[in-house]
Amino acid sequence: MPGTSRMPISLRESFNSVKRTRPPNNPWQVLNVDLARNIVFFLFLLRWTRRVLWKLKGRGVFGTVAELYTDVYRVLYGYFLRAPGVRTQVRRQVGEAIAKLQTKLVPANATRHLALPKEGWADDDIRKELDALASMDHTRWEDGYVSGAVYHGEDDLLRLQTEAYGKFTVANPIHPDVFPGVRKMEAEVVAMVLGLFNAPVGAAGVSTSGGTESIIMACLSARQKAYAERGVTEPEMILPETAHVAFRKAGDYFKIKVHLVACPAPAYQVDVRRVARLVNRNTVLLVGSAPNFPHGIIDDMAALSKLALKRRLPLHVDCCLGSFLVPFLEKAGFETQPFDFRLKGVTSISCDTHKYGFAPKGNSTVLYRTQELRAYQYFVDPAWSGGVYASPGLAGSRPGALIAGCWASLMRVGEAGYLASCEHIVGATKKLAERIRDTPALAAELEIVGNPLVSVLAFQARNLNVYDIADGMSAKGWHLNALQNPPAIHVAMTLPLVKVWEKLAADLEAVVEAEREKERVRAVEGKKAKGKADGDAAALYGVAGSLPNKSVVVDLAKGFLDILYKA
After folding, report:
1. How confident is the model at residue 78 (pLDDT cuts 50, 70, 90)?
2. Would the CA dihedral through 351, 355, 357, 362 be positive or negative?
3. Distance CA 93, CA 401 (A)
4. 563, 98 contact by CB (below 8 A)
5. How confident is the model at residue 532 (pLDDT cuts 50, 70, 90)?
6. How does DSSP classify residue 538?
7. Under 8 Å CB-to-CB from 169, ≥6 apart: which residues?
8. Which of 47, 99, 409, 430 has most Cβ atoms within 10 angstroms of its Cβ?
9. Antiparallel, parallel or unpaired: β 456-461 and 446-448
10. pLDDT score at 12
11. Taken in order 137, 143, 145, 146, is the CA torsion positive or negative?
12. Residue 534 CA to chain centroid, in angstroms?
């Protein structure tokens, strides 16, 4: 029939012949296939049953249901944000917010250098341009108006660091035979920090580019240890919800499932009982902070240490922020808690030498109880065509000049200097806390979060919008840190800030009084209390806290990162 494809007769007969001569199905073969299917189904069912049981054990029935509800609500809200009409409006508002950020961060009339100059500039011209860049309008950290960020900033130490940097500008620790001085300084820096944290004999450490890398490497070490010693292929770690975000980054990079544990009021320390309930055979690491970044609270490290020993798990103490303050609290006469290697369950500690160690930015350390634990973060490739390759961390080449600056800083300040810094910085933090508690206008409206023992002081607002307070302080030239979950502001005391903490307290009182007056005016006008928050901090954190799905905030954050690279 035209248009119909027919199989040739010879080929059709051959095919039919094969069909006639094919042996009947082997019953054992059918049985094996069915058995394999049943085994696969059983393993699938076992895996998910185990996961459900672990979830119920860790979160409880009500906690599991609440978490499921939150996840479903977040997904559905995400679909809502992508609906045609809503999506257009959201994109427009995100675009407006990013444009506002760009106006603030990228000067409109600045000269831009978007290509290499045809001829190299004269040294004096470069110096003139560098002076102009350093003098661009900015929050005056030099006057102590910035929370954290710059922890020392005195001219004498800066000059010494610059001199040390200049002597080792071309140095690279990846070539220890070419730059033996850098190798020696790096080893000595690690040894000094190990001693500061009462490390036992046989302890070891590595220098890194900052606290994030230190934390990431500790997580990698724990993951590799669990894989090598217990065969764990689906690793999980348990951390306080206030732990540094670098742990979540490590989880994302290394595919470690992250369990967040609440830090309930009034102590705002991690709930160790909930941590214990979440432990299972896939757990590779427990985490505590000393102190945490948001609220400056030291977790109950003694209880976490006992749990780690009982369950034979690594315990990491994040002391990046506490760095060279927490080890001196007791000597300075301040209240403290156990946190270091004297707790037998502590297996690793991260400590930033570039914070209260006053080293140049780009310096940190990660410390381990044993050399074996440190070796789990190493990377070695013996078969590369370029030769045997080995590196202690993420980076290959590293700036030896920064190591020299760090070594010079530690040697210049010394134990006596760090003790004095602890007395000044922690002392000023406690005075600021007392001022907030003892000043009627501040005590009526602000509530300090927990019992901070070190340099970070966080406070919430009782009746006012705390983000309006943050914007009011920004208008007075202060650069403080706005927090979320719960909404709050924190101050990280530094040596520059020590000199002006009383000015900070006075401006804070003035801003609180101004916000209270606004509320009184609203009440007279018959408006709802806590009027609309229009400031920058409120626009970001107020919206972020109210949205179940954070995709809008993610878009804003990505837009901000894009702006940083806009020339």
Report:
1. confident
2. positive
3. 44
4. yes
5. very low
6. I
7. 401
8. 409
9. antiparallel
10. 46
11. positive
12. 28
Check whether 35 has a pLDDT greater than 70.
yes
The CA distance from 519 to 504, in Å, is 23
Q: How far is CA 72 from CA 58, 59, 193, 546, in A?
A: 20, 17, 46, 16
- DSSP per-residue string spanning 144-206: T-BSSS-S---HHHHHHHHHHHHHTTT--TT-TTT-HHHHHHHHHHHHHHHHHTTPPTT-EEE
Question: Is 410 in contact with 357 (CB distance < 8 Å)?
Answer: yes
At position 79, the amino acid (one-letter code) is Y
β-strand pairing of 379-381 with 389-391: antiparallel
The DSSP call for residue 330 is T
User: What is the distance between the alpha carbons of residues 419 and 325, in angstroms, rounded to a whole number?
Assistant: 8
Pair of tokens at residue 88: 């257009």
The dihedral sign for the CA sequence 56, 60, 65, 71: negative
Cα distance between residue 119 and residue 327, in whole Å = 53
Tokens of 53: 């049981």
Q: Are strands 315-318 and 456-461 parallel, antiparallel or unpaired?
A: unpaired
Could you give the CA distance from residue 196 to residue 211 in angstroms, rounded to a whole number? 17
Q: State the distance between the two ends of the chain, measured CA to CA, in whole angstroms.
A: 71
Pairing of strands 389-391, 446-448: unpaired
CA atoms of 512 and 472, how far apart (whole Å): 8
- Residue type present at position 400: G
Torsion of CA 505, 507, 508, 511, to 10 degrees: 160
**Mean pLDDT, residues 280-295:** 97
